[in-house]
Design a protein that fits this description.
There is one protein chain. It is globular, with a radius of gyration of 17 Å. It is built from 5 helices and 10 strands. By secondary structure, it is α/β, with parallel strands linked by helices. The longest helix is centred in the N-terminal third of the chain and has 14 residues. Strand 9 and strand 10 form a beta hairpin.
């Protein structure tokens, strides 16, 4: 397995698109949170790749907060939930290259047989904390209705995502963080 740290969602989309365009005979997939999958899906459609099948809902709509996937295979885009409905395990993807957001790597790897190789799996994230970093990172979504919070302390990485229905102030975001981690 490889690990890539991307500067932002645009560099991830560029890398994924490069992989898709590199060899049309390869099937390429990405596994990530709702926001990541939405951004990648939009970029793929902007680049002229047709949607064949797509099941993608905002977590506030249906309560699903696990990973989604996008596969670019058989001439189009296939998108859906990674977790089987009513079960705790993820789909087993058989693509030539699979990008997996670091938040979901444990659940994703549970779907592999012990004999399966993971050399085609690329783990990705958007931050690059060193083990000595103790600086928290709070990044608001564009609409200020959600945020991502990351922190590293003594080698332990804490990541938390929140999405609400109203715009948040910095104080409200820190209050939500403290309520969830105290």
């Amino acid at each position: 397995m490889n690990k890539n740290v991307f500067e932002d969602i645009n560099t991830l989309c560029d890398s994924f698109l490069d992989c898709v365009n590199e060899d049309a005979s390869k099937d390429v997939a990405i596994v990530g949170c709702y926001e990541t999958i939405c951004d990648v899906l939009n970029e793929l459609v902007r680049n002229g790749i047709d949607i064949i099948s797509c099941e993608l809902h905002d977590p506030e709509y249906d309560g699903y907060e696990e990973a989604y996937y996008i596969e670019v295979a058989r001439g189009g885009i296939w998108c859906g939930k990674m977790q089987y409905e009513g079960h705790d395990y993820y789909l087993q993807l058989m693509d030539d290259v699979i990008y997996v957001e670091e938040y979901f790597i444990d659940e994703f790897l549970e779907s592999f047989n012990s004999n399966d190789s993971t050399s085609h799996v690329v783990i990705f994230g958007f931050d690059n904390f060193g083990e000595d970093d103790e600086v928290p990172c709070l990044c608001f979504d564009d609409d200020y209705k959600g945020f991502s919070f990351c922190m590293c302390d003594d080698g332990y990485h804490l990541k938390f995502k929140y999405k609400g229905s109203k715009k948040l102030t910095m104080d409200e975001a820190w209050k939500i963080i403290s309520e969830n981690f105290n």
